Amino acid sequence: MNNTISVLICIVWILCEAAFSQTQTVKRGRNEGTLYIPASNVMGNGDITAFTGLGGIITSEKAEAGAEIGGAIGIAGILQVNLQTSFINFNRLGPTEAHLQATIPGNDRLRFFGFALAGDLYLSTSLDTIGVNADSTKPEFNPYPLFSAIMDLDWLSRPKQLPLKTYVAFGLADDPKLLFEYRQLSFKAGFEVKRYQHSLFIDAGMGMYKEKNNSSSTRQTFDQRYVWVSPGGRYRLRQRFSLLGSLRWTVYRHVDKTSSLDPQWFSINLKFEAPLFFRETNTEAIRTMVFIEKKKEETNKEQTEQDIAAKSSVLTNLENTMSDIQKEDETFDYKKEKEDLIKRREKVDALMNEIEELLNEDKE
Asked: Most buried among 118, 146, 169, 250, by the most CB within 10 A?
């Protein structure tokens, strides 16, 4: 257990050191999806990404933590390979997965509709005690080749340039740890608001289970199910590396009390993605240009609003000044002033007449 934790800490430290040594240029992968639903896009040819994750779940009977490490590489323009393995409670090897995802031609640029099919290989390492020859002291390595399908709509490519991406996914594996005991169906849907650097998303899904034929079960339908919802987000570090996080709740469950199926009630998950080799493709370049243009429009709009506000302030001050002058004009009574002036002139004339009379008397 201690060795596993030490290895994970070293991996995170190396990836963080790589992150903080990079430039501030915004970089994003065209295959970036949500935490539970990948995008239908694939990585660029030769691009390599490593990732590590931590998580914890709570069920009605137990609490469990775990970690995962893995990586992905792009092949040509329409293929991508993902490999990952998990550690349950940091001391027991969990399922190891390999996914070969193929997308439709033209999905290497900003488009509205995207679709992909994936061949999924799960190497189950659960303690399989169901089989007759099973040994409960060690895990059985049983391979389960399955498939999944992904469809998404990128609304940023529409004329309104809405930064929203919607996802729908279907697969035959809902919980790889239980593939040895249950046949499964998985339905997922997601909504993601993809901003210039960061994003917010909400995933929802339903898992359906049917016990495999064995001596203790006669079930033939997917009559056990549960529904979950998970809000989360993507925070970009140094404009390139990503930290994903989400909380997940089970909002509905219907399971047989006699079954060993115990869907999680609550979980928290964190994932760190580090592109080791990355070449920007048309999708990321166009998306960056769209956001830069929108940013320029917003800046110009703000500057225009500031100019209008400044001119409006000048006009307001001018109007106030003219209003004050008008009020002064309105309080000045010209008629009264004229009457007062006439009276003053009459008084002056009367005084002048008195002076002339006095001068005439002196002469006599």
From this structure: 169
CB 173 within 8 A of CB 158: no
Check if the beta carbon of residue 110 is closer than 8 Å to that of residue 91: no
175 and 51 co-located in one domain? yes
How wide is the angle at C-alpha 139 spanned by C-alphas 134 and 144, nearest 5°? 90
Point out which residues pair with 57 in neighbouring strands: 64, 267
* Same-domain status, 183 and 306: no
106 contacts: CB under 8 Å, gap ≥ 6? none
Spatial CA neighbour of 57 closest among 35, 84, 89: 89
| pLDDT, tens digit, 9 for 90 and up, residues 46-62 | 888 999 999 988 887 77
Number of residues written out for the chain: 364
Prediction pTM value: 0.70
Asked if 17 and 95 count as a contact pair (C-beta separation under 8 A), the reply is no
Domain-ending residue, one of 248, 280, 312: 280
